[in-house]
Structure formats: C-alpha cells, structure tokens
Amino acid sequence: xxxxxxxxxxxFILMYPREIKDLIDELSTWSSVGPKSAERYVLDLLKKSxxxxxxxxxxxxxxxxxxxxxxxxxxxxxxxxDICANPKRNKNIICAVGDQQTLNALEKTGEFNGLYFVLGGxxxxxxxxxxxxxxxxxxxxxxxKEKDKINEILLAxxxxxxxxxxxxxxxxxxxxxxxxxxxxxxxxxxxxxxxxDIDYADEITLGNAIKERKEI
Length: 216
Ligand SMILES: [Zn+2]
Known about the structure:
Elements: H1 2-15, H2 18-28, H3 35-46, H4 50-62, E1 67-68, E2 75-76, H5 82-85, E3 93-97, H6 100-109, E4 115-118, H7 136-145, E5 152-156, H8 161-175, E6 184-187, H9 203-211, E7 214-215
Bound molecules: zinc ion (ZN).
The site of zinc ion has 8 residues, from helix 5.
C-alpha cells in the first residue's frame, strides 16, 4: 500500500509541471477525493478560461460566509436557517441527525415537516469520538428548554454500528432524564439496509422509514 502510494506520487512528479502536481496533491488531501479523481479535476480546470476560474474562486470564497444555524446546526447564510424560521414547520417534533447529508436526505423525501438538530457526527469509539465531542449536551438543553412545546424526538441515524450506538445512547439519556418524560422518543422504521448510509437511501424507502417510525 505504502509502496504503491510512493510510486503514484513519483509518477505525478515525473509527468506534470510542479503547479499541476501541487494542486493534485492539495485536492488529494480532501476526504473522498483520491489522486486519480484529483488528477481529473485539475485536468478539467486546465480547460477552463481565466474568467471561468475567477468565477469558481469567487464561489469558493462565498461559501466561507455560510454559518451553522443557532437553533439546529443546519448550514445557513443567516443566524436562523430557513427551516427553523419557517412558520409552516411543525415545532412539536425534532429530528436529531448526525450530519448535514442526513438532514438533506430527509428533506428530499418531503415526509418530515418538523425541525432538526444536527449533532455534528456520531459516536465512533474506534476513532475516539465520544458523546462529549458531539452536540449532545446542546440537544438535551434544547429539549429541556422547549419541553412544553416538543412532544416527539425522532432519532434518524445510519443503520450501522456507530449510528446504532448513538441511538441507544440518546434513548437512555432522554428516557432517564425526568425533565423529558413527556417527550415521545421514536426512531426510523427498519427497512434501510444494515450498514448503509441514510443519504444513499432512495427517497421512497427513506420516506416510508419516516412515516412508519417506531416509538420507543
Ligand atoms: Zn435551523
């Protein structure tokens, strides 16, 4: 593995001018972009005009203005995101998710009309991510603060080991908190393939998992 990586890196040094190699190396450091994909992106960029490159640079700069919603953690250009600010959303139900991709996948189904709370990841003991590394305290604080308004929390996490660990941890935490006894805890119905990512599920399957969610 190490040897093949070494050969790959040297291949770039031999084949490309330094500027191109540097950009390929830079893009290769991104998660989910391997050296071959990075190479393709850079070769595509080379075909673009200076004007097109400037437009791209400006677009990249603009995403630095995006912040996390103060209420739910959803990405937003305003302090309160469009979902939280929407008066038509059902404020009685909150869906806890690990990340933005899950939120987007649930939104795409059109089956959930409540609010969200993004934890910023899932419990992952192998990689040293515990409850304190996530916004779990903030979630509990929000549930307590709005306990007269919220009557359900839906736990929507990937059907894999880390997702399951996070769900079980949250169930225990919420159920054992006497301030939160009136809040119904539910989770997505089974039906999503084990080990899969929610954001790869088709909209109908995921929509059904929301509609048929189970109270715990
Ligand atoms: Zn929000």
